[in-house]
Every structure is written in structure tokens, then in C-alpha cells.
Amino acid sequence: MDCSSRSYSSSDNSSERLSFLLEQAAGLNEDGVYELSSGKPQEAIPLFQEAWESLMEVAGATGSTCTSSIVGTDCSTAATTTRIQIPHLEDDVFYIYSCAVAYSASTSTTPVNTTSKDVQFECAIVLFNLALAFHQQGKKTKKEGFLRRALQYYQQCQQSLQQVLTTNTTCTAHDELILLTLAVMNNQASIEYELPIPTTTNTTSAANNDNSEKLWHYSIHAILDEETTNFSMVEQSQIHEFVQNAMVFRLQRPCAAPTA
């Protein structure tokens, strides 16, 4: 995206400025997804980071936040998403959700309203893709540091999605929110399964086991809740993989026994 012809002051919070930032974030995110699909996470990471910064500027200009809930809003204008398969995220034991998410820029004519409805979802998408990029880089290089960075971004994405998932049952993006939340929990569990178990305390081990329990609970709920979800056959298959992962985690990496 060529931004050289656009110039704004730091204090310009006009609708045009906000629209530009939303479009820029979507474009940068799409470019990052392309790099991921080409197996180049190092090139994708700065693109996702710049997209995140654009969305944070929108959030700051409108008094919103990328980690706040959108409870009570009508998200009928939620961004249209496309999922793209990316390479180098396979595992012999764990199924890893390896679809990066591209989204269209918001079409609302009122960016302030768009922000309150959609920007949290768009922030979560960018965070998820950023986590995928570090996850992909960690699997390619077999370096633990990249996996731990991925884990941090998955956790941040999950926090952003948590309230949205549990309260917006009538949102048109509800299925997308559920699947993305399950994918985040699944990929967190896959990294926690792969990384060494800390020996200093039982806290981290307990938290890891709790993630697998949440994955189990939400996956089963998504499978059974046919009245409010409309997953495709592929998505249903992915959710069943999440359930199997939770079982593997619970059976092969149980929570450490509590100390006296």
C-alpha cells in the first residue's frame, strides 16, 4: 500500500484520518498474510506490528481500546474475513490451526461507530496473525524464544476475544469469534505441550492444564450448540481436532500435583 501521498498531523482525528488508518491496517494485515503463506514469517512480523499500531491509534483517537469488550453492540458491520493456509506449522502429535486471517477494511461511513463495533475484532485478528508468524518462525528454526513470543501474543489475543465470545451470541461474526478463540486456545496448548515444563513452581503447569480444560469445554460447547452456530464441514473437522488435542494434553501432560 502506497501511503506517500497522504499526510496527517498527529492531532488530526478526523473521520478521513480514521478511515485511512482502518484501511491501512487491513492492507498491512493482508500483506502480512501473503508473506506468511509464502513461508516468510520474518517479513510478515513487521507488517502485522504496523497494522496493530494503526489500530491502536484508531482506538486511542476514539477513546476505545483494543482489549475492551464490545458487549451490547450490534456487529452486523463486522469485517468480512478470509482464511489462508500457511506452511511450516505441522506437528506429529498436536494439530496446529495454521490458517492466517485476512479481513476487509470496515465499510461504515462513520469510523467512530465502526471502531466501537469492529476494531476489537480486527485487533484480535492482527494479534492472532502476529502469534502465527512467531509460531511459524519457531517451528522453522526450532528456537524456543520464537515460540514463547507466539505464546504471549496468543494470550493477548485470547484476552481481547474473551468477553466478545461469551456475550455476543447474536452477532453475525459469532461463529468467526468462536473459531478464532478455539484456534487461539488450541495453538497455546500446542506450544505449552512442546515447551519444557518449568520446575520452579506448579503455577505455570496448573495454568497450562487450565488452558486444555478451557479448550475441551469450549470445543464441546461449539460442537453441541447447533442453534447458534453454523460451521462448515471443514470447520467442524477442525473443532474435532481441537477436542482430540485437549485429550492428548490432559492425558500426556497432566497438571503437577499440588504441594503440601
Give an account of the 3D structure:
There is one protein chain. Helices cover 62% and strands 4% of the residues. Mean pLDDT is 76; it is low at 1-12, 68-77, 107-116, 200-204 and 254-260. It has 260 residues and is mainly alpha-helical. Helix 2 packs antiparallel against helix 3 and helix 6 (203-224) packs antiparallel against helix 7. The termini are far apart. Strands 1-2 form a two-stranded antiparallel ribbon. It has 7 helices and 2 strands. It has one domain (15-252). It is globular. This is BRO1 domain-containing protein. It comes from Seminavis robusta. InterPro entries: BRO1_sf, TPR-like_helical_dom_sf.
Write out key terms for the chains shown.
260 residues; 2 strands; 4% strand
Strand order of the largest sheet: 1-2
Shape by Cα distribution: globular
Helix fraction? Answer: 55-70%
Which structural class is indicated by helix and strand composition? mainly alpha
Largest sheet: 2 strands, antiparallel
N-to-C SSE series? HHEEHHHHH
**Rg from alpha-carbon coordinates:** 19 Å
Distance from first to last alpha carbon: 59 Å
Average of per-residue pLDDT values: 76
Helix count?
A: 7
What is the total domain count? 1
Low-confidence stretches: 1-12, 68-77, 107-116, 200-204, 254-260
Strand elements, count: 2
Approximately what portion of the residues adopt beta-strand conformation?
under 5%
How is the topology of this model organized?
Elements (H helix, E strand, L loop, with lengths): L14 H23 L3 H21 L19 E5 L13 E5 L7 H31 L2 H24 L6 H21 L8 H22 L8 H20 L8
Antiparallel strand pairs: 1-2
Helix pairs in contact: 1-2, 1-3, 2-3, 3-4, 3-5, 4-5, 5-6, 5-7, 6-7
